[in-house]
Amino acid sequence: MNSEVRVRYAPSPTGYIHIGNLRTALYNYLFARHNNGKFILRIEDTDQTRKVEGAVENIISTLKWAGLDYDEGPLKGGPFKPYFQSERLGIYKEHADFLINHKKAYNCFCTSERLNTLREEQKKLKLPQTKYDKLCLHLSNEEINRNLSEGISHVVRLNVEEGKVIKFNDHIRGEVEFLSELVDDQILIKSDGFPTYHLANVVDDHLMEISHVIRGEEWLPSTPKHVLLYNSFGWELPVFAHLPLLFNPDRSKLSKRQGDVAVEDYKNKGYLKESLINFIALLGWTAGDDKEFYFMDELIKSFSLDRVNDSGAVFDIEKLNWLNEEHLRIKTDEELVRMLREELNKSKYSSLEFTDEYLIEVITVMKPRISFIKEIFEKGYYFFEEPDVYDEVAVTKGWKTDSSIILEKFTEKISAIEYPTKEDYETSLNETALEMNTGKGSVIHPLRLAVSGVSGGPGIFDIVFIIGKDKTIERINKIIEKLS
RNA sequence: GCUCCCAUCGACUAGGGGUUAGGUCGCCACUCUUUCACAGUGAAAACACGGGUUCGAAUCCCGUUGGGAGCGCCA
Q1: Burial A192-216 (b: 16+ CB within 10 A, else e)
Q2: Which residues fall within 8 angstroms of residue A40, CB to CB, at 6 or more apart?
Q3: Of all nucleotides in the shown strands, which has a C1' nearest the CA of A130?
Q4: Is the C or the N end of chain A the one with fewer CB within 10 Å?
Q5: What is the pTM of this model?
Q6: Is residue A220's beta carbon less than 7 angstroms from any atom in nucleic acid strand B?
Q7: Quick one: average pLDDT of A386-401?
Q8: Which of residues 50-69 of A have CB within 7 Å of strand B?
Q9: Radius of gyration of chain A from Cα atoms?
Q10: Confidence (pLDDT) at A40
Q11: Strand partners, A179
């Protein structure tokens, strides 16, 4: 038996990747990288009716964005093409035939209508479990062959023997037991010839030599079916590890109703991939120390399945926001300028030109005040355009009858300096206050209002220095005109 | 309804027979700052309940309650 760690992320292309899926993918990825194993992407596209256009591309680009690069796919199409189950139909058919030949599975010709009424009846009788009644298991070979040759629509079902205890070991939960009479004769091959999840998943996991099946807890109840399949084929079980679920704040399963669930939504909102990864890694796993801030390579180093929690976790946006701030603040000026320019091009300021030096100055003073890079345009809009309106509260509190005269005095002083430095502005302001026989506050507040339109923000000398002498004077003149 | 899984501050979690039950986010206060933040300091805040085992239980066992998932020709 191959001892190499081989894991897979196996999404179905029915939409976007959501946060819970990304965490599953991440844990698989971390586990593979930590153990120098392989991380495989397999697209489970066996449901023709649920296929969504562009979903595969979305999955691939999301994984790429998140930094979860996968190692393996089929040879055709290059090394970075994932596996597609829809391209492996023959393989599943062969395996289903093997099971039929060994009496582990059988053809079933029952119609959906019959199945539905059967289910209704069983519900009415308050039976503990609705399940197929094995009617077609007792068909004679002649009947089966006749039906088959007449081309009657049929499926292949797993033949589950009653009275057995199905036991398996879950890496996270320990030993789990199910009674076989509660397990339905699961459909393996649908009438359209496509396999169901259960068959395709087990066959592929075996053929691809998956050593650890790491997936969401929602799969735990169907694991006995998979165990039965492994047994029927005579295959060794992989290690199962069922991850605890992610919840909405009200502890229901994570869903769109209560906030965003698509990874793309977070990306579009401006969350850094570093913080999203850091955050979801901590949703159900901890190294056991007090470390909270991680980069991917540190996660790989520390990750272990043994320290994954057993209980579900609520997705708390506040902590994500905090991590986003932390990851943002640790970025270099170059990176931040690059990011800011990207946002700039998408913003209403896209036609304006700014030098890297200017943007770095803005970033430096705004960095401690933002959670997202694009917030610079909201909270520091005055670095990109002249204030048009003045914050009402700030006006009431900061603009006095003598503010105009005071600012005129200040203007006089800085006009006299050709290239004022930050210190020059400060000195001018101090002198203004002194000469006007007032406190510094009565210069600072109106000045701040004039240049920024609001009452908060970076240090006033930083602001005026960054926007420069000409614009400062312009804005002072404007506010005097408007407010006096 | 049935089966399975789970249960420590509001949230994420550490601890896993003897701890003042620790950390992080958030919330609050103070310091810094004539602004807003950042930073720093501090505070409030939890072992679901009931039995049992034990000298001793948040920790082990059983039960109750609560929450969740699953019960498709979906994955």
Answers
A1: eebbbbbbbbbbbbbebebbbbbbb
A2: A6, A7, A8, A9, A70, A71, A72, A73, A82, A83, A208, A210
A3: B71
A4: N
A5: 0.93
A6: yes
A7: 91
A8: 50
A9: 32
A10: 93
A11: A165
Q: What is the mean pLDDT of residues A251-268?
A: 85
pLDDT at residue A29 greater than cutoff 70: yes
> Other CB atoms closer than 10 Å to residue A110's CB: what's the count?
16
The nucleotide whose C1' lies nearest the CA of A456 is B36
Confirm if A23 and A217 have CB atoms less than 8 A apart.
no
Strand B close to A110 by CB, under 7 A: yes
ipTM: 0.95
Question: Quick one: pLDDT at residue A79?
Answer: 52
Closest listed residue to residue A80, CA positions, set A112, A117, A40: A40
Please give the protein residue whose CA is closest to the C1' of the nucleotide B23: A290
- So what's the pLDDT on residue A91? 96
Closest nt to residue A293, judged CA to C1': B24
In sign, the C-alpha dihedral spanning A42, A48, A50, A53 is positive
Tokens of A40: 């495989």
Per the document, the length of chain A is 484
> From the CA of A222, how many Å to the C1' of B20?
47
For the stretch A437-467, pLDDT in tens is 999 999 999 999 999 999 999 999 999 999 9
Distance between the alpha carbon (CA) of A177 and the C1' atom of B55, Å: 37
Q: Is A2 within 7 A of strand B by CB distance?
A: no
Report the pLDDT value the prediction gives residue A81, as an integer from 0 to 100.
63
| pLDDT above 70 coverage of chain A, percent | 98
Please say if the pLDDT value at position A2 is more than 80: no
Task: Give chain A residues 300-359 with Cβ within 7 A of strand B.
Answer: 307, 309-314, 316, 318-319, 321-322
Whether A160 and A228 have beta carbons less than 8 Å apart is answered as yes
Among A103, A123, A256, A482, the active-site one is A256
State mean pLDDT over A354-363.
96
List pLDDT tens digits, range A57-115: 999 999 999 999 998 754 434 555 678 999 999 999 999 999 999 999 999 999 998 99
Asked if strand B contacts A437 at the CB level, meaning under 7 A, the answer is no
Rounded to an integer, what distance in angstroms lies between the CA atom of residue A132 and that of residue A122? Answer: 10
Nearest-CA neighbor of A62 among A260, A262, A254? A262
The answer on pLDDT for A120 being more than 90 is no
The nt closest to A43 (CA vs C1′) is B75
CA of A30 to C1' of B68 (A): 26
Q: Is A374 a catalytic residue?
A: no
Higher pLDDT, A302 or A123: A302
What pLDDT does residue A75 have? 45
